[in-house]
From TrEMBL, chain A:
CDD domains noted in UniProt: TM_PBP2 (cd06261)
Name of the molecule in the record: ABC transporter permease
InterPro entries per the UniProt record, alphabetical: Bact_Polyamine_Transport, MetI-like, MetI-like_sf
One GO cellular component, as annotated: plasma membrane
Transmembrane parts of this sequence: 12-32, 67-89, 101-125, 131-154, 175-200, 234-255
Family annotation (Gene3D superfamilies): MetI-like (1.10.3720.10)
Record-stated family: Belongs to the binding-protein-dependent transport system permease family. CysTW subfamily.
BP terms from Gene Ontology: transmembrane transport
Ranges where the ABC transmembrane type-1 domain occurs: 63-250
Length: 260, 288
């Protein structure tokens, strides 16, 4: 019986891993394809499609745009999320349960609807489509996430350190900058890097709210119109590599917290 | 020192202004760029596409035009299939990772299981196209090995859409269910065994009920993300059957009909809200 469970477990786990990795392996493998079609049989290896991606000005400028929007919107989201998390965790506010609910509400709404709403609003207000408009949308989706992560890490044990600082005469802004921020740094970085990965990969909001200058996922979408193309595989593999770096940073910041 | 006896949480020296100064930027952002757009969308959905003026026709179109109605039916069907299949696939997998894999390898095994999570979302759907296309990996393997003479029509079908979605949500659900299984104290299982329950009964009566909250949270996330997603059905499903997000994007892209797109978005959101209320008691964010 035990033997059967073990064997079945292994077989099942391998099958699921196969399912999970199949598209990624195919993507990376055929990005190295020498000929013009990313389909079997594999004719590689060649780096010509990576070369083509890196010399494509539209793709490289979209990549820079994506990184810029990701960094700035994540920084905004994490700042607003941190300040509000501190406010809610440390002070008694009337209706704070309701207000916390309001901040986390966008988590339950699909990106498409958030993008649609902003599109209608900006359209009425005469705000042109731009990277800034898309960035505003990215803060909307990432603020609740940053808030939830940081708020969940605001344990009561940190209150005593803050109180000690106040008793020693520190004004509020010093308590915030010199005590709370360093103590919560892992949660803040975790929120920041997680936001980065979401913003960096976000498509629908950017698609709706940008026009001439746009982000990488939207450019990749445009590339898809030309059908199956090894260039798409190459740019996809590059995006994967950047995301993995961000995730590793996220993991490291969280791990550092776990073993104090 | 705290003087008002509020368990040390109210800070007398801070006054009333500081806490509001801390939470106002986040609240303001949410009101200005989330609530206000939603109100704008609500107004927009009540106006006529040409010429303005208030009308309910955008909503009545949804209920009277069979193709719009069909999009919602398709969306609900696909989402239900995806949610059920993903939970059924992910639960045993999460259980194997939590129970069968040695402790020291678990973190690595879990990280591997969610690694493709971090490929670009657009690219992940496209990769499935490489696998499922007429001359893609699966069809080449089938015809090449002589199992099939004709390639199967896999891409541009509901099967492709569901596969793309399940791929994504198996990873998500594995994470949530694994976390839930690891939180279970082993003493529950010992107690069940001491009282004479076999492994199957222990699982059905102890482990499964205790991990139900995790399953519900994961299933809800699956529902919300799946029913609102445009990319996967657009790339993998083709235009054989439309899902709600595709219908919404079509109104904007091809016809520039913001009012109708707004009305359809609000209907979609109403469906998600109903789902949220149905499982609200499982979905609380609590402070550690």
């Amino acid at each position: 019986m035990r033997w059967f469970v073990r064997t079945a477990s292994w077989a099942y786990a391998l099958a699921v891993y196969g399912f999970i990795f199949l598209p990624v392996v195919v993507l990376v493998l055929f990005s190295l394809q020498a000929t013009s079609f990313p389909i079997p049989p594999f004719t590689g290896p060649s780096l010509r499609w990576y070369d083509a991606v890196l010399s494509d000005v539209r793709l490289t400028s979209a990549l820079v745009n994506s990184l810029m929007v990701a960094v700035l919107s994540s920084a905004t989201a994490v700042t607003l999320g941190f300040l509000s998390a501190w406010g809610f965790a440390r002070f008694v506010l009337p209706g704070s349960g309701l207000l916390r609910g309001l901040i986390t509400l966008p988590l339950t709404v699909s990106y498409l609807i958030i993008g649609m709403g902003l599109l209608v609003l900006f359209n009425w207000a005469g705000v042109p489509k731009s990277l800034l408009a898309a960035g505003i949308g990215h803060v909307v989706i990432n603020l609740p996430l940053c808030f939830a992560i940081i708020y969940s890490q605001m344990g009561d044990h940190q209150i005593n350190i803050e109180r000690a600082a106040r008793d020693l005469g520190a004004p509020e802004w010093k308590v915030l900058l010199l005590i709370t921020v360093p103590v919560l740094a892992p949660a803040i970085f975790a929120g920041f890097f997680l936001s980065m990965t979401f913003s960096w990969d976000e498509f629908v909001i950017s698609f709706l709210l940008t026009r001439f200058e746009t982000t990488l996922p939207v450019e990749i979408w445009n590339l898809l119109r030309s059908g199956l193309n090894p260039k798409t595989n190459a740019v996809g593999s590059l995006v994967f590599a950047v995301s993995i770096v961000l995730v590793v940073l996220f993991e490291l910041t969280l791990l550092r917290r776990r073993k104090p | 020192m705290s003087s008002n006896g509020n368990s040390g949480r109210a800070l007398p020296r801070a006054g009333r202004a500081l806490p509001w100064a801390l939470v106002t930027p986040a609240l303001g952002w949410t009101l200005l760029f989330f609530v206000l757009p939603f109100i704008a969308m609500g107004f927009s959905s009540l106006t006529a596409h040409e010429g303005g003026g208030f009308t309910l026709s955008n909503y009545s179109q949804f209920f009277t035009n069979p193709s719009y109605w069909q999009a919602m039916v398709n969306s609900l069907q696909v989402t239900a299939i995806v949610t059920v299949v993903s939970v059924l696939l992910a639960y045993p997998f999460a259980w194997i990772l939590a129970e069968q894999v040695p402790e020291r390898w678990q973190r690595l095994a879990l990280m591997l299981a969610v690694l493709p999570f971090w490929t670009s979302y657009v690219v992940r759907s496209y990769s499935w196209l490489l696998v499922l296309a007429q001359n893609g990996v699966i069809n080449r393997a089938l015809t090449g090995s002589g199992l099939m003479t004709e390639p199967l029509q896999l891409a541009n079908t509901r099967f492709a859409t569901v596969t793309g979605f399940v791929h994504f949500f198996v990873m998500l659900l594995t994470l949530t269910i694994f976390a839930n299984l690891k939180q279970l104290s082993p003493s529950y299982r010992k107690a069940a065994a001491d009282l004479g329950a076999g492994p199957v009964r222990t699982f059905l009566h102890v482990v499964l009920p205790l991990t139900l909250p995790g399953i519900m949270v994961g299933a809800f996330l699956t529902f919300v993300l799946c029913i609102g997603d445009y990319i996967t059905p657009q790339i993998l499903g083709g235009n054989n059957e439309l899902l709600m997000p595709q219908l919404v994007m079509m109104q904007i892209g091809r016809r520039g009909d913001f009012p109708l797109a707004s009305a359809l978005s609000i209907i979609l959101m109403a469906v998600v809200t109903i789902a949220y209320l149905a499982c609200a008691r499982w979905l609380k964010i609590e402070r550690a």
